[in-house]
Amino acid sequence: MSTSTVRPFRLDVPENVLDDLRERLRRTRWPAEAPGAAWQYGTDLSYMKELVAYWLDGYDWRAQEARLNALPQFIANVDGLDVHFVHVKGQGPRRLPLLISHGWPGSFVEMLDVVGPLTDPAAHGGDPADAFDVVVPSLPGYGFSAPATEPGMTPRRIADVFARLMTDLLGYERFGAQGGDWGAAITTNLGRNHAASVAGIHLNMLIARPPQGESWPLTDTEQTALRESEGWRNEETGYQQIQGTRPQTLAYGLTDSPAGLAAWIVEKFRAWSDCGGDLERSFSKDQLLTNIMVYWLSGSIGTSTRLYYESRHNLADSFVGGRVEVPTAYARFPGEPFTALRSWGERAFNLVRWTEMARGGHFGAMEAPDLYVEDVRAFFRTVRRA
Fold this sequence. Notes:
This protein is α/β, with parallel strands linked by helices. The protein has 15 helices and nine strands. The chain has a nine-stranded mixed β-sheet, with helices on both faces. It is globular. It starts with 5 loop residues before the first strand and ends with a helix.
């Protein structure tokens, strides 16, 4: 690790910041709700009142802060951009470096339950030969990573930043990469554009679509999948439109109101998870609030949503073109809302593993950490031997 550009990071939130948060929560101005609406019109009012009450009287930030600080965290300066990351060395004879990229509205908090089993498998009932050195960065503009100082920070550019972090600053010549949501786009770009360093990629969201401009018609299965995707886009992607066009306008309200921020984020955790409509079947209030606190304490919700704008306005520079040739695995969690078929994935990737997961959704590492760890270990076992 280059000590000239990497420095330790530790959370130590001033008490007056927490006092301000509590005061804002007490003064929440609640909106009206359509009769009998529940979650149909957006985040449920009764659940939000319950969550805010717990945030005020039951949630212990200091306990969560200590848990986060138990992980070695750092800030690295990569080409003038300060990038926050967790870096835990593995316990095993042949550790493979593994870069894990999160998405929106998640954070490095998503990975809390998988870092231990991945780095020290023997301590969690596994084989020491499966040990990883785990690196979990916060995306630029997310949490404790600084935002870009100029436009154009797309998934491709983030992949370039993360590749430099792994190779130039941390000294890893060869590493694996894993990701979902924006992390899947970043990981895909790593596999396509940094194949000399990337041993393989594991995805829990697959960015692949049917072939365009070819003479043969789509199959019935493909047509059904596209109809399902279209229905989902019509009902669930309003957030993409506003974040991809006017993120700054949205940022004022979400930066000023902790209840508003929580409602914006919690809706996605419910809609994209395998919870069957019962949010806390997949996540505890502590898990939800600790992720929200990363956005609140850093004031980063506005800068995080810029990634939608940059990608929307720089499409050619955001997503890879051409086939990804490094070995690729896809873990298909049943609650994942972004549809992709195996045939599409095989056209776009050197897809060597496709796993139908028994449970879990978009936030796989958080919802089903045991299954996530098992699949990551199994895939990279083959890559280690390559």
